[in-house]
Specification:
DNA-binding (chains A, B), homodimer, mainly alpha, Tet_transcr_reg_TetR-rel_C_sf (chains A, B), Gamma-butyrolactone-binding protein (chains A, B), transcription (chains A, B), Tetracycline Repressor, domain 2
């Protein structure tokens, strides 16, 4: 899986060769076909890894901080998790029509919508904020910033773009008292993960 | 060019076949090779068409309205211009590494930056608004919403997404008096084009 994700991440779906994946994984063709029947099968498994990696938000002082953390933690994990990067590339690649790429968009939208609706119930959102509109807006915008940072050869920039997206979007949906307390700065993903780890250690 | 853009739009770069383009254009291989030496050549020409289609903003009451119109007019033109759609797909496709896809991101960012800087000079932006940050943010987010609407098989949705993006972004950068006067609603692209046409007819 890791070898497949690496090759998909570097080459994209169309250009990825099974022989390269076999070589990188150091397995025989027979061993691979025991688990996966085709390149398409492998690609689906890598894409599914992204969907199953959709996190359970870590509890924060506000639901809007949990909403922001979804994207900030993901941006941080993109720098460390190869399978996630391969999965994102397969999702954003439009080349091979046989892969369904709508799955991750829907999963991420559902997660964002759920947390936004909780924020709304707690009175953290401005009255006119439409969660059904904002959830897919953030998912689509986030995907594009990811794609742009790859096209401009700065994949590590995603932490900066995610921060920028939230800082410019949240003022139009958050009540000022909550807005003022949000951490949307670069490095938030790493900080949130470190805090969660520290909490687990003390618990 | 139109035939090539159509095939690239439907299949993407990797899967597009020169024979399909020849058939759709109803030209011989010899005639095609007189103008273009390869599929890559053709793709570059289609991508360049997008860059040369980067519009000169039509004068509006505020520079921020011109900024909004860049994206709203483009969203409208995507529904009517096949070459533009093919070009966008080639830009967003990550498949063929031999194509440089950073060009359009840079061109659109430069255009947005120029108009935003004019808005800033006229006092239409909040003091903290960073035009160097906002210009690429809008371009990347816009590209992703385009990609998502294609992945979810609703390419016509771009008018709605562009409107949503601007309505959620502008409150964090525009001074309230200008913000209140902006038309960022769906159909703005068609309205702006119709107004420009009417102005040309009377002139």
């Amino acid at each position: 899986m890791e070898a497949a994700a690496t090759v998909f991440d570097e080459r994209g779906y169309e250009a990825a060769k099974l022989t390269d994946i076999l070589q990188l994984a150091q397995v025989t063709k027979g061993a691979l076909y025991f688990h996966f029947h085709s390149k398409e099968d492998l690609a689906h498994a890598v894409i599914d890894a992204q969907v199953s990696a959709v996190p359970v938000p870590m509890p924060q002082v506000s639901k809007l901080q949990e909403f922001v953390d979804i994207g900030m933690v993901f941006a941080h994990r993109l720098t460390t998790d190869r399978v996630l990067r391969g999965s994102v590339r397969l999702t954003l690649d439009q080349g091979g029509n046989e892969l369904s790429r709508s799955g991750p968009y829907r999963e991420w939208t559902e997660l964002n919508l759920r947390v936004l609706n909780e924020a709304k119930e707690r009175g953290e959102l401005l009255p006119h904020a439409d969660t059904e509109e904002v959830a897919p807006l953030v998912v689509g915008a986030y995907a594009g910033l990811n794609l742009m940072s790859q096209a401009l050869n700065n994949p590590a920039d995603m932490d900066r773009w995610a921060s920028s997206l939230y800082r410019h979007l949240l003022p139009s949906i958050a009540v000022p008292a909550v807005l003022a307390m949000l951490d949307m700065e670069q490095g938030r993903g790493a900080r949130a993960l470190a805090a969660a780890e520290a909490a687990t250690t003390t618990a």
